[in-house]
Amino acid sequence: MAAGEDLVAEIEALEEKLAQAKTAITQRFIGQERVVELTLTSLLCGGHGLLIGLPGLGKTRLVETLSTVMGLNGNRVQFTPDLMPADILGSEVLETGADGSRAFKFIQGPIFCQLLMADEINRASPRTQSALLQAMQEKVVTVAGETRTLDAPFHVLATQNPIEQEGTYPLPEAQLDRFLVQIDVQYPDRQTEKEILLATTGAEEAEAYQVFTAEELIAAQRLLRRMPVGDAVVEMILDLVRAFRPHDELAGDRVKDTVAWGPGPRAAQALMLAVRARALLEGRLAPAPEDVINMARPVLSHRMALTFSARARGDDLGNLIDEVAHGMVPTEAAA
Questions:
Q1: Model confidence pLDDT, tens digit, residues 96-114
Q2: How far apart are CA 123 and CA 126, in angstroms?
Q3: How far is C-alpha 302 from the geometric centre of its chain's CA atoms?
Q4: Domain spanning 227-335: which superfamily?
Q5: 3-class SS at 37?
Q6: CB atoms within 10 A of CB 334
Q7: Which are the contacts of 133, defined by CB distance < 8 A and separation ≥ 6?
């Protein structure tokens, strides 16, 4: 009983601290509460986030603010067509000592940080994009045959322009799967845009301030994995993920006709963590079915693909995910 009480106390203390962090972030990133929630979700789960939106919507500002508020050492890389893998990972250079001796020395790249902002990641070539794969999954990089460990915690928050824009290279499926959530950054409504204008064009502007330390974030990530998840929620997660695999018995006719390939086990793992994070951010002690429905689109949409005929019809994956998720009934409720 005492252990359960301790867990409840720890969760409640973390919820209070997360509320402070959200307040600090929204002072500088105004009116996009859903975007802030999903970005914090990716950090709490120890994962990475992919922010998709047109230029000028504040994606860079959000990541810079997060770096300060969460107490993380951050670096920013502007991805361009001529960027090379060594520009991100680092490289070995030949140094000549005072005695004339020569030796190779490793110069760390910007990836050696705790929060890497990969700005406009889809403007770099596929070769450069793939340089992040090992780092995002294993938290290490291999350069010149030697494996080097990255700082802890390590997170990538990448921004991506819509693929319809000129000069973009679509991210490969293997890399998309490394992102815990896809975060769509939309245009603000009129009132929000007015608040942004007034807050950012005056003589003074709100400053970001630190709420977490890196050690506290790591402790929060460990605590999140200790949160209890009810059987009904676990079964709902499994049913939902499997329902989007065209050849699975749970897949309906709409999915079979629309989805070329569905999410794998990593998607179920990501959804399990994400629903816990949402419960924390909402001030609850355990996730509920509503959290599964809420997190389904950001967790699953980049882990699936439409068939050619579905693309020709103009079908939308996000709408399909929402439709199937809302139709899911937890096993206990069905009984």
A1: 777 778 888 888 889 999 9
A2: 9
A3: 11
A4: Magnesium chelatase subunit I, C-Terminal domain (1.10.8.80)
A5: helix
A6: 9
A7: 174, 175, 178
